[in-house]
Amino acid sequence: MRIAVVGSGYVGLVSGACLADFGHTVVCVDNDNEKIEALLQARVPIFEPGLDELVATNIREGRLHFTTDLAGAVSNAEVVFIAVGTPSRHGDGHADLTYVYAAAREIAGAIKDFTVIVDKSTVPVGTGDEVERVIRKANPVARFSVASNPEFLREGAAIADFKHPDRIVVGVEDDMAKEVLTNVYRPLNLNRVPIMFTRRRTAELVKYASNAFLAMKITFINELADLCESLDADIQDVALGLGLDNRIGPKFLHAGPGYGGSCFPKDTIALARTAQDAATPLRLVESTIAINDQRRRSMARRVIAACDGVVRDKTIGVLGLTFKPNTDDIRESPALSIIQALKDRGAKVRAYDPKGREAAAELLSSDDVYFASDPYDAAADADALVIVTEWDVFRALDLRRLREVMKSPVLVDLRNVYGYTQIEQAGFSYHCIGRPR
Ligand code: UGA
């Protein structure tokens, strides 16, 4: 099939590259000239494991193309995915749909034959209806159908998630769009991967409901971890025991410093706003948002407590700046709030992250944070070392070496990577989440 993807950010680029890898002919469009120039030379502007090779192979084999010419790409396509950003709107937390509607207007002018326009961006319920209205108004004679096909991929595992999804959700209002989208996903072997067709508004809500549910699941286990500390129980065993029930499942039950990233924080707020506007508030989601916000502050307090209540003029090493491993994304990362809170209390921070340094350096000045070259450099002369993101390279640190370089051997493990025995035998005092001594 001939597919155009409008917006070559995270979702657009991964989707475009994977669809090309299935054998479709794909053009990825972006209005950022520099980005397209780089992609034409197979230089991928984001870090995502496996994406460089996937993009390079599919360019070489002639299935993946990049352009700034939206009209040219759309006029040749049978299917156009809209994968532009939907950031939080300043002030009210609603999703900002400026880019979606701008793309729809441009697409409208370029439609030639019957075209299916598919929203892949995370958009509030009713956006598909509005996209349809925008296109109809801009081009009353166009033959088109608007569908919703939310994406469920995770940063750091995006290619595997796209190619081996648990399900594909498609919202359509007519059979033609249904047939076209079935053909788009046929290479996935639809006997194995369930493809679910529903109405457009319902598909839009499935995406928000999924992210909100996962955010609630994480928040639930985080609160239980605090309770474990009060009751002398072990959160990891509680999570294991819970997760063995098939109705609950073992995933997204890792207690930690609170969820971050470009999706859960923004999508939970947007869903809560939508529900309030519809006079049907989602109180569980509202509480989740509030609890997660508080959790970041409480994480900084834990570090301070581990330093005997004072961090002024002390040095704190921070391992991990990204919101999770295997990404260079630091958006809404708990590390940033923790660093800020430590700085506010007068601490000096030395931070190390395998991929997040560049993005972090744009937000934090070098007066605020020293960016270390490896975990041992981050720990140099430190009064405490804090693991905020569970990168694999932090899982088998040389504890003896850490002890030698640190001023005092205190490890605050906000991801429960280590255990008491191992760390205490190495001569450290150890602080973790939901596992009392
Ligand atoms: C999330 C969803 O998992 C994807 O399905 C969805 O497509 C995506 O948002 C999106 O809407 O685009 P992502 O934000 O990439 O994906 O990352 P997750 O792996 O879901 O992690 C989100 C946050 O939750 C991270 O800060 C992570 O550390 C935290 N988390 C996750 C926990 O604290 N505990 C867990 O058990 C799992």
TrEMBL record:
Pathway annotation from the record: Nucleotide-sugar biosynthesis; UDP-alpha-D-glucuronate biosynthesis; UDP-alpha-D-glucuronate from UDP-alpha-D-glucose: step 1/1
Source species, domain of life: Bacteria
Keyword list, A-Z: NAD, Oxidoreductase
Active site: residue positions: 263 (nucleophile)
Keyword hit for tRNA processing: no
Catalytic reaction list: UDP-alpha-D-glucose + 2 NAD(+) + H2O = UDP-alpha-D-glucuronate + 2 NADH + 3 H(+)
Binding sites annotated in the UniProt record for substrate: 152-155, 207, 252-256, 260, 324
Ranges for domain UDP-glucose/GDP-mannose dehydrogenase C-terminal: 317-420
NCBIfam families: NDP-sugDHase (TIGR03026)
Name of the protein described by the UniProt record: UDP-glucose 6-dehydrogenase
